[in-house]
Write a sequence for this structure.
């Protein structure tokens, strides 16, 4: 084995580690490595941290997301930003009546799953790193295996700042459509059968008080007969709304819809929810942000690969699953923490990756199986009954 792939010791080179993607998992990995003197570099296709909206809110679980933040030395900073009240879970019937309402307890506030906006979490992680740790505007186009066991990274529009980079370890933290995954696995994400149409309410307590009250302080779900609404409190008075449908992947095209035509999309969604309470239909009609189509994809279960020197995956690149697991970001962060710790503790990169993947693969299979069951139960003919029974068991 080349000495360039040996972990840092006196007289030996520092391993060259590239993390592709600056999401929560990749950032946690870089943070922990750098705390131990291993200067991993993140390559992110976004031009800057403000290039795009980071999405909704996340609940950080004690034994995964919060644990990873603790290992990264960032738990106190996270708790200062988190919203314990956001743990409230409410189920509403299609008639608008509340069927179940779980308020967070004092124990939940201290040890539960407090919520944080994705953007706030990403900023927290970015601010914990040296500004040179992330190379913005680097879109990976190809990973080239080299004869010496290293890999050469090629980026779009190779210029002085985008010249190929040779590294000892490539960590694919590049999400659902990972380019790194292609070197390890032939698996590709498949459509789950469910699409979310995302919309939102701004300054909700003032401008949309009835919908804000119906949502509560956390997450409100109204699910029945293969359809439903999920409304989530974000910070700053915003409520993010997901209008869910079990439908074809190209449902809007079959309906002749232009997704930029808000009036037409609104009419099509109202038709789908004919007979539902006017209170719930307000989540369709009172949007402040138009409609964004988001078909949900997942990797086949189980998703495994043959260990390959110099390559590994974390987060959605390794185990993309539906959001009904509640585990996506949490697992990604735990992946990042476990991989970083393995690199710190093992004498070679290969040994570290082998130890990490022995932990990663079994737990990701279990979580993905649960996520598949979750989305099938949430968007089924009897989804109202299934969801109520699930909430009663878990709360």
């Amino acid at each position: 084995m080349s000495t360039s792939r040996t972990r840092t010791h006196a007289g030996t080179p520092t391993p060259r580690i590239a993390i592709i993607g600056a999401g929560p998992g990749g950032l946690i990995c870089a943070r922990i490595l750098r705390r131990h003197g291993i200067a991993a570099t993140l390559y992110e296709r976004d031009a800057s941290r403000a290039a795009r909206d980071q999405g909704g809110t996340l609940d950080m679980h004690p034994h995964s997301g919060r644990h990873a933040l603790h290992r990264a030395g960032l738990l106190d900073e996270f708790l200062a930003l988190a919203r314990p009240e956001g743990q409230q879970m409410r189920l509403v019937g299609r008639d608008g009546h509340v069927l179940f309402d779980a308020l967070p307890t004092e124990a939940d506030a201290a040890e539960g799953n407090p919520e944080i906006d994705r953007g706030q979490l990403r900023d927290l992680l970015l601010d914990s790193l040296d500004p040179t740790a992330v190379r913005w505007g680097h879109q990976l186009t190809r990973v080239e295996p080299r004869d010496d066991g290293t890999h050469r990274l090629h980026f779009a529009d190779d210029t002085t700042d985008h010249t190929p980079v040779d590294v000892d370890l490539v960590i694919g933290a590049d999400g659902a459509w990972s380019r790194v995954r292609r070197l390890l696995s032939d698996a590709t994400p498949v459509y789950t059968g469910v699409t979310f149409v995302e919309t939102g309410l701004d300054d909700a307590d003032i401008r949309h008080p009835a919908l804000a009250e119906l949502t509560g302080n956390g997450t409100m779900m109204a699910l029945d007969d293969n359809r439903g609404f999920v409304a989530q409190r974000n910070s700053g008075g915003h409520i993010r709304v997901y209008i869910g449908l079990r439908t074809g992947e190209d449902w809007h095209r079959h309906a002749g819809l232009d997704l930029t035509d808000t009036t037409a999309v609104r009419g099509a969604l109202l038709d789908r929810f004919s007979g539902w309470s006017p209170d719930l239909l307000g989540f369709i009609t009172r949007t402040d942000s138009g409609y964004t189509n988001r078909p949900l994809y997942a990797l086949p279960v189980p998703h495994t690969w043959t260990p390959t020197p110099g390559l590994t995956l974390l987060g959605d690149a390794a185990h993309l699953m539906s959001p009904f697991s509640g585990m996506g970001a949490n697992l990604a962060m735990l992946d990042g923490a476990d991989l970083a710790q393995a690199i710190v503790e093992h004498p070679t990169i290969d040994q570290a990756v082998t130890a990490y993947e022995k932990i990663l693969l079994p737990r990701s299979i279990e979580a993905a199986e649960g996520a598949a069951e979750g989305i099938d139960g949430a968007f089924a003919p009897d989804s109202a009954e299934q969801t109520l029974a699930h909430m009663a068991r878990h709360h």
Observations:
- Residues 190-298 form a domain with the D-Amino Acid Oxidase; Chain A, domain 2 fold (CATH 3.30.9.30).
- Residues 349-378 form the longest helix (30 residues).
- The chain is about 35% helix and 20% strand.
